[in-house]
Amino acid sequence: MLNTTINIPRLNLLDFTEGTAEQRKQFSDDIGKAFTDTGFVTVANHGMNKELIDELYEVVKQFFALPEEAKRAYEIPGLAGQRGYTAKGKEKAKDAKTPDLKEFWQRGQTIIGDETLRASYPENVEVRELPRFNAVTEEVYRRLETAGRALLKAIAGFLELEEDYFEDKVINGNSILRAIHYFPIENPDEIAPDAVRAGAHEDINLITLLIGASADGLEVLTRNGTWYPVKAYGEDIVVNVGDMLQRLTNNKLKSTTHRVVNPPKELMKTSRYSVPFFLHPKAEMSLAALENCVDASHPKIYPDCTAGEYLDERLREIGLKM
Ligand SMILES: O=C(O)CCC(=O)C(=O)O
Ligand SMILES: [Fe+2]
User: Across the strands, what pairs with 228?
Assistant: First the structure.
């Protein structure tokens, strides 16, 4: 069948954060059902208005328009790209040979108080040329973290866990806001034939919240092996399951393979920007399968490990950590 219909519902986060008991239950059921099926939803009323998203794209474009040497000054050796700038040609999908056609910036957690935890994270890198860049990316980080915590409460409901199951694990967690620039390709004949904007991959973290990209290109792999474009309406965000949540739920929730394809030839000289927020827990969180996701017909798939150990292994596989 060529024309696959796939379940990527549009959910209203206010139904969960401000809704009646019935609306909250419906939201949990809907996100749970989509996450056991395609692993993707789109979400409206996530706490960021159009002005904030527009300003985010404005500062992100200004940053990537800085001269190459200015950007390279924000590459921090030894941090595996976890803070600051990562240049073109560095990151590739796990099983790919050729790096993705992108450059990116990463901002991490800001800890207030708790000196020990603070010392365990690298400092954020501030862009001296663009003061608004720092303020706006920090604001977006906070808002996506808040939206992500609400979504995890809804997911906890679906998994029949206490609503606050994820809270102490993700508050002050190791989440990352990544601003990506898929750069223009001036001469398409000069790139490797297998070079793509983002090769087929699964995200590492618990869930990803993606702010509507500036152009088409995101696709998910459906069960029958065809690729299906993901489009969010207006300012909606796209939310998907990552490998950590798949592991914790013993594959009940699906970390679906996705990619970003190159534009048609006539648009090769244009940029694409996107801003995913990778919601990570603290390193000490156990990713051992939840008891209620393991039974005789669903034997335990993965060996136990912590989020920190798992992240380390994955950063090596994608070429960011040596
Ligand atoms: O740019 C996009 O639309 C998606 C990016 C993505 O999948 C990722 O960075 O993990
Ligand atoms: Fe991704």
Answer: 220
- The residue whose CA is least distant from atom 3 of ligand 1 is 218
Which token pair is 119?
Answer: 């010392």
SS3 110: coil
Task: Compute the distance between CA of residue 30 and CA of residue 27 in angstroms, rounded to an integer.
Answer: 5
**Whole-angstrom Cα distance, residue 97 to residue 195?**
9
136-175, pLDDT tens digit by residue? Answer: 999 999 999 999 999 999 999 999 999 999 999 999 999 9
Closest CA to 178 of 262, 128, 242: 242
Is the Cβ–Cβ distance between 176 and 122 less than 8 Å?
A: no
* Structural class in CATH, domain 8-316: mainly beta
Q: Is the dihedral of CA 39, 44, 45, 51 positive or negative?
A: positive
In the predicted structure, residue 311 carries a pLDDT above the cut 50: yes
pLDDT grade for 2, boundaries at 50, 70 and 90: very low
Three-state secondary structure call for residue 230? coil
- Give the global pTM: 0.96
List, chain by chain if needed, residues with CB within 6 Å of any ligand 1 atom. 180, 198, 203, 210, 213, 218, 258, 260, 274, 276
Distance CA 242, CA 244 (A): 6
Query: In terms of residues, how long is the chain?
Result: 322
Supply the pLDDT for residue 5.
66
Which ligand is closest in space to the CA of residue 104? 1
In the reported structure, the alpha carbon of residue 291 is separated from the centroid of ligand 1 by a whole-number distance in angstroms of 31
Between 92 and 273, name the one with better pLDDT. 273
Rounded to a whole number, what is the distance in angstroms from the first to the last CA of the chain?
A: 43
